[in-house]
Amino acid sequence: MKPLLPPLFWFTDFGAAGPYVGQMEAAVWRVSPALRTINLLSDAPVADPELSAYLLAALVKQLPAEAVVVAVVDPGVGSDRAPLAVQADRRWMIGPDNGLLAVAMRQAQDVVAYAIDWSAQDLSVSFHGRDLFAPAAAGIAIGKLPALTRVALPHLIGHDWPLETARIVYFDAFGNAFTGLTGAAFSADVALECAGRRIRPARVFADADPSAPFWYRNSCGLIEIAWPSQSAQARLGLQLGDPVVVQG
Fold this sequence. Notes:
Radius of gyration: 19 Å
CATH architecture of the largest domain: 3-Layer(aba) Sandwich
Largest sheet: 7 strands, mixed
Order of helices and strands: EHEHEEEHEHEEEEEEEHE
Helix content: 10-25%
Oligomer: single chain
Number of strands: 14
CATH superfamily of the largest domain: S-adenosyl-l-methionine hydroxide adenosyltransferase, N-terminal
CATH class of the largest domain: Alpha Beta
């Protein structure tokens, strides 16, 4: 019995509608119909690789060690930004050199970064996810690496970004607000200030006061601001990038 090939995970800002994820899956199928693809996230902060980087880093930690992640939040597509293939703690991440991969790289213990020197003959100027990143990732997953050149980590965009960020980085479908904080060092009495409100912690939704927002450490390992049975985003008027202040 043949061993299973590593799964490919999509992390994009493409949204749930439209042809884009499907086109990338077709590009993978052309390389190997045996490869499995999993849509990890399709609504990353649009055209914002910096905020997306903290969300990607949290999600990548929960993937199997052999995973191959295609990460595309790429407002600079068609420019001279480099395409990267990064191996971080055995997982591969493929995407643009715009900081999107930087936080996951910084949080990993063992990292090697490469510039992808391969390019498709019919490479479009506006969809490198389909024409470059997806087929390159498929080649890596089946053991046929594209042409790669090792690059020094300090040369990459985002190499000096902080490991965490005290900002809102994502809203889920319920209006819960993910921050770029892990809260690993938070004590039980820490409060947050966001949108002019002092926000106290609760263990889970069932323990929280339904008349007020609260924060907790969510299943992705990030500090999340929520409101029981309501949208914290709407009630607090939150926007992506809003600052969060940690109070003792």
